[in-house]
Amino acid sequence: MNKISFNKKIFNPKIFQTVENVLKSGWLTHGKYTSLFEKEFSKYVKSKYAVTVSSCTAALHLSCLACGFKKGDEVIVPSMTHVATAHAVEYTGAKPVFADINLYDGNISLNEVEKKVSNKTKGIIVVHMAGSICDMKKIQSFCKKKKIKIIEDCAHALGTVSNNTFAGNFGISGCFSFYPTKQITTGEGGMLTTNNYSFYKKVKKLKAFGIDKDIDKRKKQGTYNVQLLGYNYRMTDFQAAMGYNQILNYKKNLKLRKKLAFLYSKILSNNSNIKLPKFDKESSYFIFQIFIKKNIRDKILKFFKNNGIGVSIHYAKPIPDMIYYKKKYKLNLNNFNNSKIYADTNISLPISEYMSVEQVKYICKKLLLAIKIYDK
User: Fold this and answer.
1) Most buried pick, 158, 203, 340, 360, via CB within 10 A?
2) What is the pLDDT of residue 139?
3) pLDDT > 90: what percent of the chain?
4) CA-based Rg of the chain, rounded to a whole angstrom?
5) What is the domain partition of the chain in residue ranges?
6) Residue 130, pLDDT above cutoff 70
7) Which DSSP string do the residues of 70-122 spell out, in sequence order?
8) How is 278-316 classified by DSSP, letter by letter?
9) Residues 264-274: tens digit of each pLDDT
């Protein structure tokens, strides 16, 4: 079988034409596709408002700023996630406080969160790992009692649902990623969703230098005022055109992802050497994660590479083991045992709407062969 890439992208010819039209127009930012993308995205996830931004990291940072996090505050984040989740808190001067995760869904453990809450705790950022949603009903109930603001890191969770509610609607904001490996991509880019109007208006200002008027609302060219210290976190209009065209077809593409995830689960779930979360029809399956014994995990990664199968790790190192955070906050990885196990044993298998049933069967066949070879 031909080489299987970890995350294959095939763009509809219409996307190339739309992007070309934007480039030819000369209107490369603040354009119509930015607005169209925001409207279509909010329609899809059923949020009241959506704001395009330059990355998911930008969305997280803006959310922390709009929540008012500052020096002296604490914000709880999972110990197993991309470092951007913690960075967003750190940028504001607040302190990220790490809570361990569940095995094997990778989501933040509410029991661990409860241990980390103090009178300085102002917020929590939950991460829906691999597209599987956190236990938001319990987290919402707990945070409401403690008056803790919830931000959702939905970088993996476009299309993930729980109790008929899309990820991104459980907290004050949802932060989505359009990095090249994600379900839809704009190269770099992100989206912030919210159902709070005042929060939305503040984020809109913060993402564009603090300017008080959108370009199409100015009575005279170049006239505006700056009301607060903002940033340049805008998305270009040709990126928005890419995203807009992909979100239109996303329901169909997500259905295909779930079909392949079900097949992975069906083939692999009965093998005692492989641990994996139970198939979840509500997950968006950004990746399909499995867990293999630590002593053979890296051998299997190499085996996949030698057989032309693209795989990855999400993630190879918990944030408390990253030098910056480890030194600054004097963290001990032994306090995050589940995260340590997760990091040492996870493998992300390729999953994409552009893959075939035959490819998934081939990957599973090679995986089971590799386990047979190395697990002696």
Assistant:
1) 158
2) 98
3) 90
4) 21
5) 13-248, 250-374
6) yes
7) -TT-EEEEESSS-HHHHHHHHHTT-EEEEE-B-TTT-PBPHHHHHHH--TTEE
8) PP-TT---SSEEEE--HHHHHHHHHHHHHTTB--B-S-S
9) 999 999 999 99
Q: Identify the DSSP state of 182.
A: S
Kindly indicate the confidence band of residue 375, based on its pLDDT and cuts at 50, 70 and 90. confident
Model pTM score: 0.96
Indicate the SS3 state at residue 354. coil
- Whether residue 20 is predicted with pLDDT greater than 80 in this model: the reply is yes
Fold for the domain defined by 250-374: Aspartate Aminotransferase, domain 1 (3.90.1150)
In the three-class reduction of DSSP (H, G, I as helix; E, B as strand; rest coil), residue 63 is classed as helix
Tokens representing residue 2 in the block = 């031909």
Check if CATH label 3.40.50.300 holds for domain 13-248: no
Q: Which residues pair with 161 in a beta bridge?
A: 166
pLDDT at 38: 98
C-alpha dihedral, 202 to 205 to 206 to 207, nearest 10°: 120
Mean pLDDT of 97-124: 97
Q: What pLDDT, on a 0 to 100 scale, did the predictor assign at position 56? A: 98
Per-residue buried b or exposed e for 79-95, using 16+ beta carbons within 10 Å of the residue's own CB: bbbbebbbbbbbebebb
What residues have CB less than 8 Å from 131, skipping those under 6 apart? 156, 157, 159, 160, 283, 284, 285, 286, 287
